[in-house]
Amino acid sequence: MSSVVIVGAGEFGLTAALELRRRGWDVVVLDAGPVPHPDAASTDISKVVRMDYGADVIYTEMGEQAIEGWRAWNAAWGRELYHEDGFLLMSRERLAPGGFEFESCAFLSARGHRLIDKSAEDLRRDHPAWNAELYPEGYLNPCAGWAESGQVITCLAMQARRAGIEIVEGMRFGKLIDCDGRVAGVVTLGGGEYRADRVLMAAGAWTPALLPWLQNVMWATGQVVMHFQPGDPETYRAPQFPVWAADIGRTGWYGFPATESGIVKVANHGPGIRVDPHQPRVVPAAAEEYFRTFLRGTFPALAEASLVASRLCLYGDTFDGHFWIDHDPQHPGLVIAAGDSGHAFKFAPVLGGLIADVVEHKPNRWAGRFAWREPSGVSGEGARALAQNYTRAHHKLSK
After folding, report:
1. How far apart are CA 194 and CA 136, in angstroms?
2. Of 140, 136, 102, 101, which is closest to residue 121 (Cα–Cα)?
3. Of the candidates 272, 269, 227, 274, which has an alpha carbon nearest to the alpha carbon of residue 251?
4. Residue 133 sits in a domain of what CATH number?
5. Do the beta carbons of residue 152 and residue 352 sit within 8 Å?
6. I need a labelling partner for 211 at 20 to 30 A (CA). Which of 100, 171, 279, 397 fits?
7. E strand or H helix at 56, and its extent?
8. Which of 115, 53, 49 is nearest to 83 (CA)?
């Protein structure tokens, strides 16, 4: 029986562990904290689940299959942790070729998905929390929604333990074990040794800090997330307030319907702040006003809601926004599964199969996108705010 030690019990690590175990591997998962790890990106109340990726065939296919997987997980777990409330994408300009919303709508429609066009008049009638004066056009994708990400990790960990996977908590990575030029396991900071045929590094934003030779292609980026508690949470629940994106290709703003306890999460998928993942996370003092300025324009009533929580969510950002899933060519026996770049959680139901195929050198139609590559200035993931005005506004937060 082949064996693998996986460093990291987040979505990459646990889904890969489950799939490799299903294929007959002996699997041990090490994590520095409790599982779910309180500082992990996935340890939050929600993550977007969507297939809308412009005209990108690979991410669209992955999104389509992942949504089928989310439905299957709901059925298997007997819990609705994926909520198919839809995804509302609005633009501050009329939809035109080249724009994220236009390309997503056109591509998905051509693939047979039934989308619902939204005008300012539709927005005003069906989604009254929005300022329809700013958003003339967009669409609603009913086949999308959000997942209770922290709870999903808990369920995956429980499923892994039931499958015979050993999850060792409180074990911090120290170094790789080298045996005649091949990686043969992991030594923890406490001196414990875990030997295996393969080591899979799936440590999220900590990955380039633990493996410094990756720092030219990926790094940790902090993104501010805020939780607001409106006085009238029913206004912010689906269907009138589903998962939303407010001109996301240019601004990065997105958010969620109110949770059962009435919390509305708002976030920005932007350039971010370079951080050391081992250091304390500090939300910039200017962040709240930055968020409220956006809310005043887009959701005026929500702008006055109480701020009940904020956090710095860490992305494991790659230079091109694509994931990093491949064997390390300079370290035989080591496989990397990282580089979430802030948009991986939605693919959790299909990531395990993809990673396991890479570990086993099996063909996978998506794997080439995430293979080892040289750094370049090309940006890959479409819904990322790179407009100069938003970049400048963001940089004010890091000062």
Report:
1. 57
2. 136
3. 269
4. 3.50.50.60
5. no
6. 397
7. none
8. 49
How far CA 19 is from CA of 89, 151, 163, 355, in Å, comes to: 34, 19, 10, 9
Q: For residue 346, give its domain range.
A: 3-397
Please check whether residue 52 is in contact with residue 89, taking contact to mean a CB–CB distance below 8 angstroms.
Answer: yes
Q: What is the pTM of this model?
A: 0.94
How do residues 26-76 score in pLDDT, each as one tens digit?
999 999 999 999 999 888 899 999 999 999 999 999 999 999 999 999 999
Q: Are 53 and 63 in contact (CB under 8 A)?
A: yes
Alpha-carbon span 237 to 291, nearest angstrom: 20
| Residues sharing a CB contact under 8 Å with residue 252, sequence separation 6 or more, in sequence order | 268, 269, 270, 383, 384, 385, 390
Q: Are 138 and 52 in contact (CB under 8 A)?
A: no
Tell me if residue 218 falls in helix, strand or coil.
strand
Residue with tokens 């694509």, as numbered in its chain: 322
Q: What is the pLDDT of residues 240-253, one digit of tens each?
A: 999 999 999 999 99
Domain count within the chain: 1
